[in-house]
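Tokenise the fold.
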Amino acid sequence: MTQSFITGLPKAELHVHIEGTFEPELMFQLAERNGIILPYKNVAALQAAYEFNRLQDFLDIYYQGMNVLRTEQDFFDLTWAYLQKVNGQSVRHVEIFFDPQGHVARGIAFETALNGIHTALVRGQQQFNISFGLIMCFLRHLDEADALATLQMALPHKDKIIGVGLDSSEKGNPPSKFQGVFAKAREEGFRLVAHAGEEGPPEYVYEALDLLKVDRIDHGNASMQDPALIQRLVNEQMALTVCPLSNTKLCVVDDITHHPLPQMLAAGIKVTINSDDPAYFGGYLNENYAAVSDILGNDKELLAQLARNSFSAAFLETPRRESLLAEIDAYLQRQKD
């Protein structure tokens, strides 16, 4: 019963890496189309490699898969496959991350990735009424000069990119490393988000707030180790984009039953549910909602609150936000009738 409730619940996804939606079947199709030999003999062998003990294990295979993406059509096909999937999950709004540095370094033009992804998002809005925002992430294992060069590439495309983020290997790459490029991005009018407190400590969350001046924190699990930080997140209504299946797959938590989500909600944090890299972590948005439903006592009001949070934390124009929040109210009323 809860599963059907989740399936129909209107919701937004605010933390998904488009390169992380690369299903093995599509990866093999595009590899064949582009004449690339993958180091796996078939789809099953590739799926078997999706076992990770830490973030870096995942990133190694993630960048390998990324190498298959060569043309604008490839990026379109990847994004369109994701949109078709989430359209069946009652997802009404998406804010998608992409990693241009991972493509430019391979000789793929910035515009090739951007235009392929954006064209698919526009089609998704027209065909599925899924509104969208596109967020360009900086790879934190690279230096700030590289990030600044990437920001320069993005400036002519403000009509397509709403914000910048920070992802990749967190440990040893604190947000403070990117203070300059985030200041520049803020001056240019971009919305700001950053991965912090996934594998890194609470200090990284503080840095994202105080030095980068982000509008949203991606992950943020480590915040629960610091009572003062918890209170600050509540006071500032700073949203966290939490990714439960990702956290278990990457051993950030050892078991979903130990996930801090119930404590986050109880503390009053504006927490949202997201899929992160669903092809690699075993589930899209509804699977993530289902994974946490049991630890929330299958409470439909709490699940609906998570969906409300996703719309209130999104970078949306007020009329669209109010329309989507009204959809949740109407859905809950139909459930009662």
The chain has a mean pLDDT of 96. The radius of gyration is 19 Å. The first strand starts at residue 11 and ends at 17. Residues 110-128 form the longest helix (19 residues).
